[in-house]
Amino acid sequence: MQSVGQAGNNVDKEISLLVKQAITEGVPLRLRGGDTKAFYGRASEGQPLELRGHNGIVSYEPSELVVTARAGTSLAELESALAEHGQMLGFEPPHFAEGATVGGAIACGLSGPRRPYAGSVRDFVLGTRIINGRGELLRFGGQVMKNVAGYDISRLVVGALGTLGVIVEVSMKVLPIPAREETVRISMLCSQAIEQMNEWAGQPIPISGTCHHDGTLYVRVSGSVKGVEAAIGRLDGELIDEGAAFWHSVKEHRHAFFADDRSQWRISVPQAAPPLPLDGEWLIEWGGGQRWLKSDAQAVVIRKQVEAVGGHATLFRGGDRSDEVFHPLPPGLFNLHRNLKNAFDPQRIFNPGRLYREL
Amino acid sequence: MAQTAERAPAGVDRGTLGRMLRQWLPETAVLDHPEQLRPYECDGLSAYRKLPLVVVLPDTIEQVQTVMRYCASQQIPVVARGAGTGLSGGALPLENGVLLSLTKFNRILDVDLLNRTARVQPGVRNLAISEAVSASGFYYAPDPSSQIACSIGGNVAENAGGLHCLKYGLTVHNILKLQVVTVEGDLVTVGADSLDAAGYDLLALMTGSEGMLGIIVEITVRLLPKPASAKLIMASFDDIEKAGNAVGNIIATGIIPGGLEMMDNLATRATEDFVHAGYDVDAAAILFCELDGTPEEVSDDIEQVQKVLEESGCTDMRIAQDEQQRQLFWSGRKAAFPAAGRLSPDYYCIDGTIPRKKIGYVLTRIAEMGQEYGLRIANVFHAGDGNLHPLILYDGNQPGELERTEELGGKILELSVEVGGTITGEHGVGVEKINQMCVQFDKSELSQFHALKAAFDPNNLLNPGKAVPTLSRCAEFGAMHVHKGELKFPELERF
């Protein structure tokens, strides 16, 4: 096992040397942060490259709304540093277990309940430093909100599951924690809830989270004190006390729905798409845009239904991890993926096969 | 010039190429007479001009595919063009290439109000999208200054911004899906109607790629509900650094204003003469802060912002009393470029972005540099996101003044990079800032850009020579020059 120790600039070089060594020896690497999302993606073999040691917040100026952290920084540590200044990561990344790192959150590209209303992981990424498959340390983007110099490689590496390079540092835009946040509960059928969530999203109501499960719709509103009060009035639901705990359970998959042995699918569809005719149990988030399905149905059956409404399906947990878990791409598009992989990692050193078998 | 244009290096002459393309395109969709080509010789950066070999104006995706297939087979370079309003020369034609104009792709194909999306062709004007959905209470958020004329396809190619980026994001945050014709003429879908797509985030990669990776032939944009209420505060400061700090202090309260803009004294006086908005012409700097949201949110926020501005030492503060006054207050800020044009025979615009905390330092340094070079500089900028537009005033008829201006512009961009910023916030690299790319990126980073480009376009046929310099090129600096008001599209607001 390879690991890096002390935080600091030398560590970048240390990682770069380990990568170069792996290239010379032709040894694939399995990039590892907190190892909290190892289940995600395809099973991938490789010598672990431990990145947790490369940690620490490099710079944080609350008035800039920007934070820069090394990839091994613990997500919990970063979030509490932001909270001290009344700020947060707007995309609410799931940790899934203790020890989740910033680099892992960026590489996996998973966002929480606020995503449709505030933006996704990549929406908040402003710059990255990565090590490519030639062992070169590269810096893209920066610490400013607007930057159109060069191709947007900082956002390209988000959700690439480490297959394009080792993320060593990331700069992100942060958001103020809303002055007030409340959750209401309304009894509603699934189809009606999907329509209602989308109608509300088309009105100036400060909604920051939506979830429908088992005949109940949960809606979170965030903003100024008076703004939230007015919004609660418009939604006309039952105010609940344990709102924060509820959204935490949904984000972290601790909600009872997720305790199940069946395969868990993440279904991403246009938000207003009606309920899909697939066997299984559903939990719907993101105004209908992200739907969790527990089902024993065949992958091909699920994917066909999802594709028909313009979405894609990921085998999130369980099932056969040696087969493709992400939605297969059309040949033309996949060709571009293959070329991109070659452009960044020509020897397929980084997480080979984790995203797609061929990448 | 005509001679070199007639005989292209690739060995295809204008007449032959025109004839070939007319096999597949309507007669009127192929332009190959020099006088027909003249309107296409430059974009909004009129200092750079070249006559293309041929201009094509396809109006179906199949025609675009056919043109690309033919050009790829003959190794003929292709430059895509939208409305031609770009400020960095991204649509500058090549003398040996085809200029592919997308202006005929001007239809809004579908509006889905429940999903809050619109499917549009690339030649649709930015503002036309908002106009089409306005009655239903929606709009398309990115609002570049040229929005009445610029096309949505060009916006995607440049990742266009505007006045409301801090809160509502850039183009990349407001689109969902693209149809792209590759250099070989294949049609691929990038992104999806869902909030994310499988595989690499090619949607983010295509956005701002300046026509280097593919031809965008359809765009699905996100629509937002119009804010129920918007209020504008205008505050005066006797010190520019205090105004800069006020920006940080507002952000520190946890409020994200819809717009946060600033002008220095020279810019304020110039614009006041131009629009008579009642600006405080004695102020060292004026800060504009717009708050939007529900009426309840806006009334909460405005109270807080007023307090912060007072604590930050503002010398005067005014809240626009009605919509008419709000528009009047904004009008000067939006007219800053033409107003600068009245102060001086020529001006030269810089597009650097810096961390907000460096505003005071950078403005002081810019003023010092201006004195060193004996040139006046008016500063207007998107203070909320640190995007600075210093306007260097000069007279191109004075020997040596243009050269000094260029050098000073280069120093300002270097300063932007030095304090942790970037050479371009929203105008793009194009041909204009290609040399400054060498300051911002090192050899291995530029090589990675070239490798990425080759993944899409191995023979370098899409907009070659733009956006990313070759390693051997990395040499000198350039920037946007406007001589005697010869800015193309003078009717457009430039801010």
List keywords for this structure.
heterodimer, A: 359 residues, Uridine Diphospho-n-acetylenolpyruvylglucosamine Reductase, domain 3, Alpha-Beta Plaits, 8-stranded antiparallel beta sheet, 18 strands, 28% helix, 26% strand, globular, B: 495 residues, alpha+beta, Uridine Diphospho-n-acetylenolpyruvylglucosamine Reductase, domain 2, 4 domains, 5-stranded antiparallel beta sheet, 17 helices, 34% helix, 20% strand, disordered N terminus
Folded structure, characterized:
The complex is a heterodimer of chains A (359) and B (495). Chain A has 359 residues and is of the alpha+beta class. Chain A folds into 3 domains: 2-176 and 340-344, Uridine Diphospho-n-acetylenolpyruvylglucosamine Reductase, domain 3 (2-Layer Sandwich); 180-251, Alpha-Beta Plaits; 260-317, Alpha-Beta Plaits (2-Layer Sandwich). Chain A has 11 helices and 18 strands. Chain A has helices at 9-25, 75-84, 102-108, 115-118, 121-124, 153-156, 190-201, 225-235, 243-251, 299-308, 331-344, and strands at 2-3, 29-32, 47-50, 57-61, 66-70, 87-88, 125-131, 137-141, 166-173, 175-176, 180-187, 207-213, 216-223, 238-240, 263-268, 281-285, 290-295, 312-317. In chain A, strands 14-11-13-12-16-17-15-18 form an 8-stranded antiparallel sheet, sandwiched between helices. Chain A has a 5-stranded antiparallel sheet with strand order 4-5-9-7-8. In chain A, strands 1-3-2 form a 3-stranded parallel sheet, with helices on one face. Chain B has helices at residues 2-6, 14-22, 34-37, 61-74, 126-134, 152-158, 165-168, 202-206, 240-252, 265-275, 295-311, 323-334, 336-343, 359-373, 401-418, 437-440, 443-456, and strands at residues 30-31, 54-56, 78-81, 98-101, 108-112, 117-120, 138-139, 175-181, 187-191, 215-222, 224-225, 229-237, 259-264, 285-293, 316-319, 346-349, 376-382, 387-394, 480-483. In chain B, the strands form 4 sheets. In chain B, strands 15-12-14-13-17-18-16-19 form an 8-stranded antiparallel sheet, sandwiched between helices. Chain B starts with a helix and ends in a 12-residue tail after the last strand. At the A-B interface, strand 8, helix 6, strand 10, helix 7 and helix 8 of A face strand 9, helix 8, helix 9, helix 11 and helix 17 of B.
